[in-house]
Specification:
It contains nine helices and 16 strands. It is of the alpha/beta class. Strand 1 and strand 2 form a beta hairpin. The longest helix has 24 residues. It comes from Bradyrhizobium aeschynomenes. Pfam families: ADH_N, ADH_zinc_N. InterPro entries: Acrylyl-CoA_reductase_AcuI, ADH-like_C, ADH-like_N, ER, GroES-like_sf, NAD(P)-bd_dom_sf, Zn-ADH-like_protein. This is Oxidoreductase.
Length: 328
Amino acid sequence: MGTFKAIRIDKADKGTTATLTQFDEAELMDGDVTVKVEWSDLNYKDGLALTGKAPVVRRFPMIAGIDFAGTVEQSSHPSWKPGDAVICTGWGMGETHLGAYAEKARVKGDWLVGLPQGLSARDAMAIGTAGFTAMLAILALEKHGLTPGSGPVVVTGAAGGVGSVATAVLAKLSYHVIASTGRLAEADYLKSLGAAEIIDRNELSAPAKPLAKERWAGGIDSVGSNTLANLLAMTKYGGAIAACGLAAGMDLPSSVAPFILRGVCLLGIDSVMCPLPARKAAWDRLATDLDRSKLSEITHEIALDQVAALGPQILAGQVRGRTVVRIS
């Protein structure tokens, strides 16, 4: 047993600290698969953990990072053998289980998904939890019956990780995408991903009326609070909104009106404990439905020693698209 580089989070007198250090392999938690981590990424939840702005981390010390892609080194799990290329997202990594910002990870084999054909490990982390969540939302809307012919689809937080991937995939699937953002300077970027319209998030941030003019057949929301309430109030009869985030808050100051007068549905999207069949389905769709050139446009690469500095920036909404972290 040796040591490896990792971003370690410890309790401090005031809050927490995040430090790039050497971690002892003997301190890795139980699991039947040990993975050499090659790539990770930066998500909103990672920003919360790195800064201590919310009680995301539930044990100390913790290795931060909720996503990784890499190669199996050791395995006693029947589905995996050394040399297999794998992805792991969610399952409490970086929260209750030692996470992904490290050269090694030990996890349960049941948490892993094989790297889909046509995707590199870097591609997988350019997608990461954000893109995976976006695809789960799209699958939920499709299951509800949404098609490009149903009408426009709104995407909130469109310049962020979930929003960027959602916009790109929906556009490739021929949907008319209305992208909502607080960064109107990113309009050209969003149009390059396929957005047909750009709206200012301020249009959706005021307290919502029980019902408003019908504007879209569906939507993907990563914001919550008044924004989600307005989305519901403006959804066409029989439409649906997939909710997957809370950047503006956990509250939902809405009414039952959209549900009982327009038959609108609110679809909850969870990517952390998502069952394995749904994970595989989402990753397979991402391998085919996300334009690789668009993925390149939304992706920025950093090294492991740069991660902690970006934590505050992603919380402030200053990080565009997806950030991949080169581990080894």
